[in-house]
């Protein structure tokens, strides 16, 4: 397995579980938020997907760019479709990366305060995904779902 494939699979093992979690959420919970200062459920899902996309685009262009206003799906169906579309696109884009992409310094200073090789940013992308997916597990459990997936896919 190539280094790039290793990063793709590490990320995908978590992203696919996010999609499984979203499949368990009924429409009535699209705007659910555990506290009044928490992101609504659909917005959290979009944040996870669009943030991951920001990392992928940075590796493609060599520089991070601040996210534009994210899409605001109004239904769980729209939320799931958006996250799936971004996931599919990012998976295909990452498959085009090379070992040189992982070694190239990506400019992140304006947003994160430092520049680093692509491999560091892909690791950060995965950690960000895991952090927020953990929150999504709590959200989904709070909507009454009792049968939850394992925290990561064990096979792809």
Lay out the secondary structure.
Elements: H1 3-23, H2 41-61, H3 76-95, H4 99-103, E1 105-106, H5 109-112, E2 116-117, H6 118-142
Antiparallel strand pairs: 1-2
Model description:
This protein is mainly alpha-helical. Helices cover 62% and strands 3% of the residues. The protein has six helices and two strands. The radius of gyration is 16 Å and the shape is globular. The mean pLDDT is 97.
**Apparent shape:** globular
How would you write the strand order of the largest sheet? 1-2
Classified in CATH, the superfamily is dinb family like domain
CATH class: Mainly Alpha
Structural class: mainly alpha
CA distance, first residue to last residue: 13 Å
Give the total of domains.
Answer: 1
**Rg over alpha carbons:** 16 Å
> What's the order of the H and E elements?
HHHHEHEH
Number of β-strand runs: 2
Total of DSSP H or I helical runs spanning 4+ residues? 6
Task: Summarize this entry quickly.
With 156 residues, the protein is mainly alpha-helical.
Which tags fit this structure?
single chain, 156 residues, mainly alpha, Four Helix Bundle (Hemerythrin (Met), subunit A), two-stranded antiparallel sheet, 2 strands, 62% helix, globular
